[in-house]
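Example for tutorial group B:
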């Protein structure tokens, strides 16, 4: 079975971990600091703070902005549960917004309509490798927390996604563009915000206790993998773009909606997500298609398991619901072999010829 995702673990990653183990310094240390500097340089930002996960990064980003009880935070409904859970943990109020179906990202017009005087931030997940419309979102005048868990390396109007918001969060989970096994990071051009994040991340050996501080430190083991992967990130993205073009060619003219790349944007293809418009009126059509691909030895997935408004039992999100019924993610990752790729291309042509 060709999996939906698989990390590109190579000799360099194994060597990096082995060096840390031989050093006997496996908790947060110098390698974490190197990884923070490397990621900050990648975004063109002055600094970053590594933490245990992308979800933890979202929570401490909100806390660093003093967001809490009674404050509202905007976010799209069509996204994983991590941003919602982070908002709930700090006691704030989530204000869900529908998406632009052509990009799967938050719709700036819907976000504007959802704004109230209580809105203190907007979490902007850049989904599947494509940056959201940051130019329009900046015009809302609300602090932006960019979620680049899926979009390292993407650009919008010549600007790198992750370099625009007041804070940026990353995830280095095993399936992400840059894998450290687990971990996350908060980055910013505002050193005072980064210092708040550091004080929230750890509490040992500090002159005074900072409210909300806990233990969210990344280990040097995880950072070593992250550093090794960061050196190869551009080659990973090049492979992803090549695979995406192969998929586009195989699906040309078959009636599917392939990933859209708006003018002024670049795509890094964390996921190759197609839409099947014929399934818009059905509830379980994707289930049958996923089953047919599994028979062919290929693991496809719904790219978002469940829209957030369904967890909260809310109505009024037609585009998120259509995406949930019609969007299918096809395996695309740098570790795909040429044989894997040929098998996927053959299956795509057989299914939609």
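The residue assignment follows.
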């Amino acid at each position: 079975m060709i999996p939906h995702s698989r990390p590109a673990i190579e000799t360099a990653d194994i060597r990096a971990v082995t060096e840390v183990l031989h050093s006997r310094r496996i908790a947060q240390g110098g390698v974490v600091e190197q990884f923070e500097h490397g990621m900050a340089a990648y975004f063109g930002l002055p600094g970053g703070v590594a933490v245990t996960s992308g979800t933890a990064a979202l929570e401490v980003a909100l806390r660093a902005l003093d967001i809490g009880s009674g404050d509202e935070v905007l976010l799209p409904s069509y996204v994983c549960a991590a941003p919602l859970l982070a908002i709930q943990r700090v006691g704030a109020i989530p204000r869900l917004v529908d998406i632009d179906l052509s990009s799967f990202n938050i719709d700036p017009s819907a976000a504007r309509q959802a704004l109230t005087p209580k809105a203190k931030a907007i979490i902007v997940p850049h989904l599947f490798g494509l940056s959201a419309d940051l130019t329009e979102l900046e015009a809302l005048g609300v602090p932006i927390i960019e979620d680049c868990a899926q979009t390292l390396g993407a650009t919008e109007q010549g600007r790198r996604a992750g370099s625009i918001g007041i804070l940026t969060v990353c995830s280095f989970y095993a399936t992400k563009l840059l894998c450290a096994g687990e971990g996350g990071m908060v980055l910013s051009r505002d050193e005072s915000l980064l210092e708040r994040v550091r004080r929230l991340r750890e509490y040992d050996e500090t002159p005074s206790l900072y409210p909300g501080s806990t233990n969210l430190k990344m280990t040097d083991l995880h950072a070593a993998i992250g550093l090794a992967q960061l050196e190869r990130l551009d080659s990973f993205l090049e492979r992803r773009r090549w695979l995406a073009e192969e998929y586009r060619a195989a699906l040309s003219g078959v009636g599917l909606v392939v990933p859209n790349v708006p003018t002024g944007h670049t795509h890094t293809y964390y996921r190759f997500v197609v839409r099947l418009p014929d399934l818009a009126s059905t509830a379980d059509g994707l289930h049958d298609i996923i089953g047919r691909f599994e028979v062919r030895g290929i693991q496809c997935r719904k790219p978002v398991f469940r829209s957030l408004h369904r967890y909260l039992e809310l109505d009024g999100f037609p585009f998120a619901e259509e995406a949930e019924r019609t969007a299918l993610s096809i395996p695309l990752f740098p570790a795909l072999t040429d044989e894997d790729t040929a098998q996927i291309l053959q299956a795509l042509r057989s299914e939609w010829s």
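The chain has a mean pLDDT of 96. Compare this with the pattern of hydrophobic and polar residues in the output above.
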